[in-house]
Amino acid sequence: MSRHVRIIPEAGWRRVWLCGVGGECTTIAARMSDFTVEKTRETKTTTEKPRDSAAEMLWGFWYPALPSERVRGRRLARAMLLEVPLVIGRDAGGKAFVLRDVCPHRAFPLSFGRFDGEAVECAYHGWQFDAHTGQCRTIPSLTVDSKLKCERIFAGSFPCQERDGYIWAFMTNPEGRADAGEAIPAVPELPTFSEHYKIARLAADLPCSVDHGIIGLMDPAHGPFVHQAWWWRSRRSIRDKEKQFEPIPNGFRMSPHAPSSNSAPYKLLKLITGEPATTTIDFVLPNQRFEQIRAGKYWLSSRTTVTPVKRDLCRLDFVAAWNIWPWFPVVSFIIHVLGPRFIRQDTEVIEKQGLGLKYEDRMMLVDDADRQARWYFELKAALMESRRTRAPLRHPVAGPVVLKWRS
Ligand code: FES
Ligand SMILES: [Fe+2]
Fold this sequence. Notes:
Layout: E1 2-6, E2 15-20, E3 26-31, E4 34-39, E5 46-49, E6 61-67, E7 77-81, E8 84-90, E9 96-100, E10 114-115, E11 119-121, E12 128-130, E13 136-138, E14 157-158, E15 160-163, E16 166-171, E17 198-206, H1 210-217, H2 223-226, E18 240-248, E19 251-257, H3 264-273, E20 278-284, E21 288-295, E22 298-310, E23 313-322, H4 330-357, E24 363-366, H5 371-389, E25 401-406
Antiparallel strand pairs: 1-2, 2-3, 3-4, 5-24, 6-16, 7-8, 8-9, 9-14, 10-11, 11-12, 12-13, 15-16, 17-23, 18-19, 18-25, 19-20, 20-21, 21-22, 22-23
Helix pairs in contact: 1-5
Bound molecules: FE2/S2 (inorganic) cluster and fe (ii) ion (FE2).
The site of fe (ii) ion has 4 residues, from loops.
């Protein structure tokens, strides 16, 4: 195996790594937050993500801000998304709102203020803001002959909806400025396949950048090492995997396939349903992983999102719905008892990884096990490019492709 490092002379371009595995090579040209891959031969490769590619947080998407039950009555709740502090509440009719938790007067956090069911009053000088639009309604210090038009002043505000037990905020821009021309897409929804079902949610903090959090979601190679448990898998259970992938809008899909046969919960599922199961896994920008398991009339549908709170902190939200034996808590047990252990294994590994990332934040992406991670970076770059040029997104996955790895 040989490796050559070459610096490209054009301004702004940092380096090209040519990594040969058995004589084949891939060229990566990388600059700040940019990532292009040019293949010289379609084959197994190792590539490297540049050190200075900052973890970009993607604006113009819906993100789950808080579980619905955390926002009750007239109380104002706090949250943070994409480094924006938020104050979240419900109006007199129970409809949720999300404002930037920064008073436009002198930056006092609005969450310390009072809320009467319609307007939030800043606790510093008493300015009042409409809870849904952020429009200023009253400035108590103004005299009647004041010329100041307080209705022209706005606190930052974000479109907001409730779905699947979360309050979602559409993060337009850091200021929470309304973007008149922008069409807001539908809020993401967990797919369900029958009228009656059970639902459960889990959450965890991940002390890492959004990129590390997300590529952890789609990393098949860590399973046998990180998620060792009698009910899941062991180092010895590692075996060859071969999965087909296809492009979908803003993401990619692991085409329907039989679930991993080396995991106890899937074996149990087969035992319960008595039917052959198929599973389909989608990743969709900016941060969502959907998994659907179908076995005859039974189904289990889950969504995991990794949402950037700050540059170095994310929150993982997992929600699952199912109709498998709703009267017997076997799936509920798997989700509520085994799920948190599984997530803890991931959070522990991310905490430990942080110790190393202080000294080295480059990463290597090894085909085929890390191909999904590479697609993620390429998708992000393609999205930014299409927003910049207003051209359609150039999808990095051209068509169906089979990936092979061992896990
Ligand atoms: S800082 Fe909010 S009213 Fe003055
Ligand atoms: Fe994991």
